[in-house]
Automatic annotation (TrEMBL):
Keywords: ATP-binding, Nucleotide-binding, Transport. The keyword Ribonucleoprotein does not apply. This is ABC transporter related protein. Residues 5-239 form the ABC transporter domain. It comes from the Bacteria. InterPro entries: AAA+_ATPase, ABC_transporter-like_ATP-bd, ABC_transporter-like_CS, ABC_transporter_ATP-bind, P-loop_NTPase. GO terms for molecular function: ATP binding; ATP hydrolysis activity.
Length: 251
């Protein structure tokens, strides 16, 4: 596996009350094609900032972010983002129309009939077959997140960025969505960068876990997670890995 995303000496600060606040200081790591990476760390350590920079939503001060060797400077369908917020969907559009939306904007070369087929195929993959004509107020939070994931993945992005996508869900729905996401990741061979507060979630989904710290303004440690898949949350090896991560990220 070669590096798809290369982040090198990335620094970012914000100006607040005329003072410069350093959030990221010389952050470097690579993501290989097909890899599932999680980013964990305490609130305010810069996880969302890092994801926004990769998505091209914001500008960095120094360093570089390269996707297949090219600098990311602006948002593009190559990096799709799924947020935590249930309100990221268009409420005036149906479930199908939401998933169709990025295709209609970016993939006009595909004929409409095919675009609709594609959107339906991804809705089936997130187990929402039969809900195509529902509006967002008619579906649950977990279903909304599944629509958002289908809408992002239907674009076949080089990287899927996920900012605490399951953070507002109850534990049962969260577990169900983690399983769906892992299945989708395998089926679509996607590359995923996933921010989470939940250490167990990080151990369940990812190949490598990037632990960020607030005092370090960047990466504290990168933990390789080669537990066999499918992973058993109750196995001794899983629990040991969760403990290892807990100990490593203690501030
Ligand atoms: N636009 C902005 N202007 C000023 N400061 C900002 C801005 N965006 C983020 N920050 C600051 O950068 C720091 C990191 O914020 P960020 O949202 O990246 O953290 P996080 O690790 O994602 O936190 P959480 O887990 O709570 O979502 C915080 O101190 C925040 O106040």
């Amino acid at each position: 596996m070669s590096a798809l995303l290369e982040i090198k000496d990335l620094s970012k600060s914000f100006i607040k009350d005329n003072k410069k606040v350093n959030v990221l200081n010389k952050v470097s790591f690579n993501v290989k094609k097909g890899e599932f990476i999680s980013i964990v760390g305490p609130s305010g350590c810069g996880k969302s900032t890092l994801l926004s920079l990769i998505a091209g939503f914001d500008k960095y001060d120094e360093g570089s972010i390269l996707l297949e060797g090219k600098k990311i400077l602006d948002p593009s369908p190559k990096c799709m983002m799924v947020f935590q917020d249930f309100n990221q969907l268009f409420p005036w559009k149906t479930v199908l129309e939401n998933v169709l939306f990025p295709l209609n904007i970016n993939k006009k070369d595909i004929e409409l009939k095919k675009r609709i087929e594609l959107a339906k195929e991804y809705l089936k993959m997130v187990k929402l077959e039969g809900y195509e004509d529902y509006y967002t107020h008619e579906i649950s939070g977990g279903m909304k997140q599944r629509v958002a994931i289908a809408r992002a993945l239907v674009m076949k992005p080089d990287i899927l960025l996920m900012d605490e996508p399951f953070g507002s869900l109850d534990i049962q729905t969260r577990t169900e969505l983690q399983n769906i996401l892992i299945q989708l990741w395998k089926e679509t061979e996607a590359t995923i960068v996933f921010v989470t507060h939940d250490i167990e979630e990080a151990v369940f989904v990812s190949d490598r876990i990037i632990a960020m710290g607030k005092s370090s303004n960047g990466i504290k440690d990168i933990i390789v997670n080669n537990l066999d898949r499918p992973r058993d949350r109750l196995s001794t090896s899983f629990i040991e890995k969760v403990k290892e991560l807990h100990n490593k990220i203690k501030e």
